[in-house]
Amino acid sequence: MRNYIIRRIIQLLPVLFGISVLIFAVMKMIPGDVISGILGIEATEELRHQLEVKFGLDRPYIVQYLDWISGVFIGDFGESIRTGNPILPDIMQRMRVTAELAILSAVISWIIAIPLGIVAAVKRNTWVDRFVRVFALLGVSVPGFATCICVILALSLMFNYYSPLGFVFFVDDPMLNLEMIILPALINGFSISGSVMRMTRSSMLEVLRQDFIKTVRAKGASEKVAIFKHAFRNAMIPVVTLIGMQIGSLLGGGVIMEQIFSLPGLGQLAVTAINQRDYPVVQGCTLVIAFIFVIVNLITDLLYAFIDPRISYN
Amino acid sequence: MKKLLSLMLAVMMIASVLAGCGKTTTTEPEASTAPEASTAPEASTAPEASTAPEASTEPEAPAEPMILRWGADSEPTGFDPHTVSEEASLRVIPQLYETLLGQDENLNYYGELAESWEVAPDGLSYTIKLREGVKFHSGNEMDAEAVKYSFERVLGRTEAGDIGAFGSKATYFGNIDTIEVVDKYTVKFNLTTVTSVFLSNLCSNYGAIVDPAVVKENGDLMRADGGTGPFKLDEWMPNNYVSVVKFEEYWDADRVKLDGITYYLVGDEAARLAALRTGEVHISTLSASNVQAAAKEENLTVASYQTSNYIAIGLNASTPALQDKNVRQAICYAIDRQNVIDIVFSGEAIPTHIIPPSTGHWSVPLEKYDLYTTNVEKAKQMMEAAGYNENNRLTLKVAAGLLDSIRQTAVVVDQQLDPIYVDFEIVNLESGEYVDVWYKMGTPEAGFDAMVVQDGSGTDPNRGIGMFFTTDGSASVFGFSNARVDELCELALATADEPTREAYYNECQDIIIDDAGKIGVASPMAYFVISKDLQGFVPTLADSSNYRDAWLEN
């Protein structure tokens, strides 16, 4: 087990290296640059050159890359060209918001999706099943931003309500924090519950059809035992895989959700930086998001062994 | 056992990721160093001596601090008045900083930090008497040394060197030779050449007076506050909000009724409308179509003013087909400006050439120019004479982007040019790429034959013409170059006599408009959708962010 984890972590390095090269190259290839953005219409050639020198953008790309990546190794992601702030503390601060939203959204989606998915599978082809399928289809097919705008407008028109602006952290004021974050979390949770629900249903259906469930039932076990103790656990592997992927992308920052609800999360940081061509910030965000993805994948893989004892990493 | 171990490991990993995120690194901007009154209740219940606002409408009650809530559409990059130029920052900067002079709604000058000013008969020096007893937010006193330092900072003459302030350019303060501290409250600017726009430039954000001590301590003013303004920087949470609170020692504190202003970032337009409707924000900006929806709401009103911005079509002078002046003029003839205004701006704009009517007497009336009277027949004949017909149409690759109004104008004009055998191939560019193409216009490297732009003429034609149409003007990107225009602009800059300057600039307009390399379309209104609770706020062209007289009713 330990060896497996160490091996996986070592594998992480080339992945992150590849990503760092890729993102560095992409940022240099896209048209537009940070200096045009800063100077606007009053730029002159000398001023452009001065700023290039100031930000080190006049050096060869390879030198710029090595300079950046060697800093990353010691936890120094550099400073934002736009704000002059060190990047890592900024990312960490944003991560708190994004992580809270991600976890809350995920929990909400499980609460909705898993019970409904099980019920739909057990009560296959009844009205309950049909309802769940329609509900799941809506979740999967209605884009999150459309739901957001409809919900915001409906609440403002019907109840004269708008979720509080600004942001406070959970530790500072739990109730206000939850009020700010619950609406986007519910919408996000609803959006992603569709696919989890479908996966739970189909996976459960498949397991329920298998011989060992028949055997369990033949032994005289109650339906509850058959479903929860035997079928559910076996049906969980694909669901956990899907959930792992979703959490990865949620932690990567729900850009649209953060934008509409004005949450100062990682997604907003990355998008603002992309628009401003603030290279070091974009590079830092991407690297952190990639890191999270890889770690979540690893955790998901480790969870397989917990769910299904037949899987072993020794 | 292994199960347990794997579970624990998983939990630990999640925990470590979250713990990493949870490190309390709240980046509370150091803001002002003065400790007092960031929580306004105390401030309003215990007004010290001179600061009780005696405005009759003001209840003196303890109640809540009167905080104006602003729904901003974009994120500020920082608050250094000498280097920042984008709109979200420029909304906040006037609260923190002041300039020596200001301009009222009729563009007349009044003293802000200056008590009086005097121009030497030869026009080569300006002596400015400062208001006494003005404090910076740090508590330091604003004096002639600070004024001198502020301008030297802009000009790159302090130890920090060139800070990239556009104000250092010749058209702003480049011709300041020396700045003399005559006495503690008198400062004298000696210029190398006579310039007609010195006073007007003193009113721009590059003329903001900053606290030398704060600059020295922080290196720059992006996140620090070195101003004398009515409000001081309280907190900035990037991508979320910026708050400023009333500066109790402001020199005109009696006049300021608000306890603070908080600028919340609400990026989505529908969300801004909802926030206005529910009273979550008191003021915001919306696009023309939503302004009409907002105006119908009981609790909202619309404050608008005519801007000196204008939408124009810039033609790339390096495109061979567009080097034929007749083709350019034909395009100008074929544009129906009112039609664009009705469709794109819901009627809330005025037709314009390259100097919008809101600049007053500087703008030559549009009616004078036949080119700006829509005449499709004539345009068609001109195009036919140039060899174009139904089988030989002219296709122009047109860049659009940045604003909805720019994109929509491109589409409408494309349709209007259909009868004169011109087709647009419109490409919508993302903002960074748009700016990149803009820089290259006028050369084949741009990859575009034309570009729809929105430019700001400012309040003086030195900007509107000098910057956009002289050969080495920094915003003259479409390849226009005319020796006479260059000469006239130089003459106008060195003249203080207004009628003479006007004559010079009028001649410039005749030449530029006849050339038709850049075709003006429409000059939009700017709107603020404001809650009826907000009173005393009157935006003008010269000063659209002044909340000194504003208060909240409820």
What's the SSE blueprint?
The complex is a heterodimer of chains A (314) and B (554).
Chain A (H helix, E strand, L loop, with lengths): L1 H28 L4 H6 L5 H10 L6 H13 L13 H36 L4 H15 L2 H16 L14 H35 L2 H8 L4 H29 L3 H6 L5 H11 L2 H29 L7
Helix pairs in contact in A: 1-13, 5-6, 5-8, 5-10, 6-8, 8-10, 10-13, 12-13
Chain B lengths: L1 H21 L17 H6 L21 E6 L14 H10 L4 E3 L5 E3 L2 E6 L5 E6 L13 H11 L15 H5 L1 E8 L2 E6 L6 H5 L9 H7 L12 E7 L3 E6 L13 E6 L3 H9 L5 E2 L3 H8 L4 E7 L2 E7 L9 H10 L2 H8 L4 E3 L24 H10 L8 E8 L2 H13 L5 E8 L1 H10 L9 E7 L4 H9 L13 H11 L4 H18 L2 E14 L2 E2 L15 E2 L2
Parallel strand pairs in B: 1-10, 1-11, 15-16, 15-17
Antiparallel strand pairs in B: 2-3, 4-5, 5-7, 6-7, 8-9, 9-10, 11-18, 12-18, 13-17, 13-18, 14-18, 19-20
Helix pairs in contact in B: 10-12, 11-13, 15-16, 16-17
Overview of this structure, please?
The complex is a heterodimer of chains A (314) and B (554). With 314 residues, chain A is an all-alpha fold. Chain A is built from 13 helices and no strands. Chain A has helices at 2-29, 34-39, 45-54, 61-73, 87-122, 127-141, 144-159, 174-208, 211-218, 223-251, 255-260, 266-276, 279-307. The radius of gyration of chain A is 24 Å and the shape is globular. By secondary structure, chain B is of the alpha+beta class. In chain B, helix 11 crosses helix 13 (404-416). The relative contact order of chain B is 0.13.
How are helices and strands ordered from N to C of chain A?
HHHHHHHHHHHHH
Question: What percentage of residues of chain A falls in helices of 4 or more residues?
Answer: over 70%
Biggest interface, which chains? Answer: A-B, 68 and 68 residues
Number of helices of chain B: 17
Oligomeric status: heterodimer
Largest sheet of chain A: none
Structural class of chain B: alpha+beta
| Poorly predicted parts of chain B | 1-59
Radius of gyration of chain A: 24 Å
Count the beta strands of chain A: 0
As a percent range, the share of helical residues of chain B equals 25-40%
List segments of chain A where confidence is low: pLDDT < 50 over at least 5 consecutive residues.
Answer: none
Largest sheet of chain B: 12 strands, mixed
| Count of helical regions of chain A | 13
**What portion of the residues of chain A fall into strands of 2 or more residues?**
under 5%
- Mean pLDDT metric of chain B: 84
